[in-house]
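Hey team,

Filing this mostly as a record. A colleague (T.K.) asked me to run one chain through the structure pipeline before their review meeting, and I want the input and output archived in the tracker in case anyone asks later how it was produced. No errors, nothing strange. Just documentation.

Input sequence:
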Amino acid sequence: MDWNAIISFVRPELFGLIVFLYCFGLFLKKVPAFKAEWLIPIILLGVSLFITIIYMGVVVEGKFTPVVIVTAVIQSVIIAAIAVFGNEIIKQLTQKKILDK
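Output structure:
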């Protein structure tokens, strides 16, 4: 799998959304009233879908055509996956590595 091909599919201006989703996931984890941590990836995907579809339809194309929506959905899934994957990598390299010692 060529990660460069996958990353090149995401519009450069949407990379900030990866950072936002990562921080939003950390925020949800810290909210005392939010107990269902298993929902965080699903919430992040929903937020990513909403923001990416709106951005692609309004800012980039100026209209919501099927091509724009499909492209936005694919990009939003990649963006959310990178945010969740990044969080898991950080957890594995910090917390799990300490437990292995």
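Quick notes for T.K.: The chain has one domain: 23-100. The two ends are 32 Å apart (CA to CA).
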